[in-house]
Amino acid sequence: MIDLHTHSDASDGSYPPSRIVEEAAALGLEAVAISDHDTLAGYDQAAREPLPAGLELVCGIEMSTKLRRPSRPRPKTVHLLGYFLGDLPSTEFRIWLAELQESRRDRNRRLIAKLQSLGVDITLEEVQALGRSLTGRPHFAKVLVRKGYVPSIQAAFDVYLDESAKAYVDRWEPSFAEGVEKILASGGLPVLPHPNRLLRHERDGMDQILGEMVDQGVRGIEAYHSEHTPKEVGHFLDLAARYDLAISGGSDFHGDAKPGVLLGTGTNGNLSIPREVLDRLRDLSPSRL
Ligand code: AMP
Ligand code: FE
Ligand code: FE
Ligand code: ZN
C-alpha cells in the first residue's frame, strides 16, 4: 500500500516530515509522498534523513493555481499536484516556487490589514508563528479560533477567509497551464488532485475541463482520495481510461489539522492504494527539458 498525498508542518499539516516517514513505515506503507502546498521544504527535510527499510519517499508538491472559466467572472483556485519520480526539481523550478511564495507573503500582509480594518486584533507574527516556512489561510483560521472570534476553523473560513467571505483578499497564482508547464519542464508529472472538488464547483461539467487540462499536459488524475465515495472513484477511473490518464491516489493527510483523515488508509479506512499505481506514474514521468 502507498500514500501519494500528504502535508507536513512545512505547509498546513501538523506532523514534521520525519514523523510522516516514521508513521508510514510503521503502517507498512511501501511509498509515501510529501506533497506540501507550494513548498518542497518538507520533502527536502525528510530526504536528508536515512529512510526506514522498505519505504520509498516520493517528492511531490501541491500547487495553488488559477483556473479561468468562461462561465465565471473571476478565476478560481485549483490545486495541481506534481510528482518528481525521475529527476528531482530543477533549480529553475525552485526559483519559480520562491516567486510564488513571495506572492503568498504579500497576500498575508494584505489579509492582516483587511482583518485589522474589520476590527480583528491579529498580527502577522502570530500567524507566521504557526505557519513557519509557509503561512496559509488555515493558520489564520487557527488564530481566529484561538482568539474567540469564531467557534471553529470552518467558521473562520465561512465568515472571514473563504473566497466569498468578508476578509478575503486575492493573490497572484500561476495559471493552471503555467503550473503544468513548469512541472513538466522540470521533469515532473502533473496530476489533478481531488477532482471531486472541481466537479462540485463546475457546472459546465468535468469533460470539457479535463479535456483542456489534458491538452495542457496533465498526465494523471487522483482517482483515489479520502474524500471520494466508491461511486466517485469509479467515475474518475472511467475518466482516466477515457482520457488516457494515469491514476494516482493519496489520503491528503494533514495530521491533527484534519483529524478524520489517516495516513495511508484515509477516512474510515476507505483507501488501500496498490504499489502498481506508483510504478505506472513512474513509467509516464518525463525527463527534464
Ligand atoms: P491559501 O493557500 O493560504 O490561500 O489557503 C488555502 C487552504 O485553505 C486550502 O488548501 C484549504 O485547506 C483551506 N480552505 C480554503 N477555503 C476553504 C473553505 N471554504 N473551508 C475550509 N478550508 C478552506
Ligand atoms: Fe492543505
Ligand atoms: Fe488540495
Ligand atoms: Zn492536499
Which residues sit in consecutive blocks of at least 5 with pLDDT less than 50? none
Q: What's the shape?
A: globular
What is the subunit organization of this protein?
single chain
Distance between the termini: 32 Å
Total number of strands:
7
Ions, cofactors and other bound molecules = adenosine monophosphate, fe (iii) ion, zinc ion
Radius of gyration: 18 Å
- Give the H and E element order: EHEHEEHHHHHEHHEHEH
Strand content: 5-15%
What is the averaged pLDDT score?
95
The largest pleated sheet is described as:
7 strands, mixed
Briefly note the structural class of the backbone. alpha/beta
The number of helical segments is 11
Largest sheet, spatial ordering of strands: 1-2-3-4-5-6-7
Distinctive features:
single chain; 289 residues; alpha/beta; 7-stranded mixed sheet; 11 helices; 7 strands; 15% strand; globular; binds adenosine monophosphate; binds fe (iii) ion; binds zinc ion
Tell me what you see in this structure.
The mean pLDDT is 95. 42% of the residues are buried. Strands 1-2-3-4-5-6-7 form a seven-stranded mixed β-sheet. The two termini are 32 Å apart. It is globular, with a radius of gyration of 18 Å. It has helices spanning 17-27, 41-47, 91-117, 124-131, 137-146, 153-161, 176-185, 195-201, 206-216, 230-242, 276-284, and strands at 2-3, 31-34, 56-67, 76-84, 189-192, 220-225, 246-250. α4 packs across α5 (137-146) and α5 (137-146) crosses α6 (153-161). It is α/β, with parallel strands linked by helices. It is 42% helix and 15% strand. The chain binds adenosine monophosphate (AMP), fe (iii) ion (2 copies) and zinc ion. Zinc ion binds at residues 5, 7, 62, 252.
